[in-house]
Amino acid sequence: MTPPVIRAARPDEYDEIARVWMESWVSTGLAEANDALLSNLCERVRHEIAQGWSLFVADDNGTLAGMLALHISGRYLDQLFVAPGYQGRSIGRHLLAFTREQMPDEIWLKCARGNEKAWRWYEREGFLYEEEKINPLNGLMMKYYRWKRVRG
Questions:
Q1: Considering the entire predicted model, what is its pTM?
Q2: For residue 84, how many other CB atoms are within 10 A of its CB?
Q3: Which end of the chain is more exposed for a tag (fewer CB within 10 A), N or C?
């Protein structure tokens, strides 16, 4: 498989991005797919963009293989999700490499403690665990990670 094209998301894709986000989140086992969740994510995509998200997609010849939301000025990787049908195909690595191009010196993120597959992946990718805190919005325990470029 050739790597997907990582590009800025278009407004006409926001609902499809929310669907990819939901299906990927559901694949962690931490939520169940339903219309309310999808509706909330559709609304959140638009709200977060208005609040400063830079939203990107992994485009596999017109199919959205993943989504990436960054707060570049804050060096924050807010969301990185790969569509279930594309998991295990290095899409996440491509999205993370793109993130490192956008924020080459430092990146921080938080990941649900219950999403062990994700936080173990970030650890393998060089992110260092810093702390845990409860997310007041959803009650989930979140693990905070940071990656810094090694100079020298």
A1: 0.94
A2: 12
A3: C
Q: What is the CA radius of gyration of the chain?
A: 15
Closest C-alpha among 109, 99, 85 to residue 56: 99
Across the chain, mean pLDDT equals 95
- Going from the C-alpha of 143 to that of each of 11, 22, 38, 80, 151, the distances in angstroms are 31, 20, 24, 15, 26
For residue 45, give the nearest of 64, 32, 63 by alpha carbon: 64
Convert the pLDDT of each residue in 65-99 to its tens digit: 999 999 999 999 999 999 999 999 999 999 999 99
* Total residue count of the chain as it appears in this document: 152
- How many angstroms separate the CA atoms of 69 and 55, rounded? 5
